[in-house]
Amino acid sequence: MPYFLGNGATPTPATRNFAAVGIAQGRQNGVLFALSSMLAKPQIRGARMTISRRDALAISGSTLAGLSLVAAARGNAEAQEKPVEAWPDSLVEKPMRPGFPAALPLNADGSAPEHPESAAGAIVGRLMWRTENRQPPAIEFDYRKMAIKVDTRGLGKLTGTLRFADLEKLPRVSHTFLMQCGAAEPHGIVKWTGVKFSDFADMLGVVPGTHYGRLVASDRHYVDEPMTTLRHPQVMLAWMMNNEPLPPAHGAPLRLVIPFRYGNRSIKGITEISFGTPGLPMPPLPA
């Protein structure tokens, strides 16, 4: 038995297409007007428009789908428009972050415990890169081809581009330390190979009055560290991890290793190194 939607003649392919367009447009605009399209007055006044049960069911299904899309879009909009909770105008108690910070075992003098090389292995957990896809930016990963900007800004005798040939002249060191994030993961005991940062600073001729070093990563993350920290004998510039070249995810071609600090201080994928004092403004922060 046909269903009557008003004054129309039997629907033609063109009429059905018109209804379908109305449904599609209704979904896109957030307003379902398929029925109004079907109820539009035909050109032949007085003709009765009929539609089969099959066509009616098809339109009903499309109508429900369109309404579902409208409801979902409205729900998303309401969620986005949810007002931000006002900042408290007094000190109030808030929930603590569970398990944070993670334990970072240190010696009594504040240095990091050395581990046997046999304990070295993988770093467990998702690594942090400040990029949209959480992957390291595409740079030159081969440490033998590194080209790192170094600016001593009048506080050392050497400024320019650091090459691996420069680091090869310095004493090579290897240490096995725990790398621990502030959270439970990532973490792992790793053998690092490279040079002491203090030897690197001496090669540049950085003067004793220099207070800070800034290291910038390929993802534009950066750290400012006191020279007293950077000159600690355990602090390294490393290009090897467990006797293999640093993989991109772990900071190739060169990374900082500060084993007595949480892992975010051991910046990866170094692209720039500069130095400063309290009276000498540091370069602009990375964009």
What would you note in describing this structure?
With 287 residues, this protein is of the alpha+beta class. The protein contains six helices and twelve strands. A hairpin with a 6-residue loop joins strand 5 (173-180) and strand 6. Helix 1 packs parallel to helix 3. The longest helix has 28 residues, at 53-80. The relative contact order is 0.13.
Strands, total number = 12
Quaternary organization: single chain
Strand order of the largest sheet: 4-3-12-7-8
Query: In CATH terms, what is the fold-level topology of the largest domain?
Result: Sulfite Oxidase, Chain A, domain 2
Short description:
This protein has six helices and twelve strands. The protein is an alpha+beta fold.
What labels would you give this structure?
disordered N terminus, 2 domains, alpha+beta, five-stranded antiparallel β-sheet
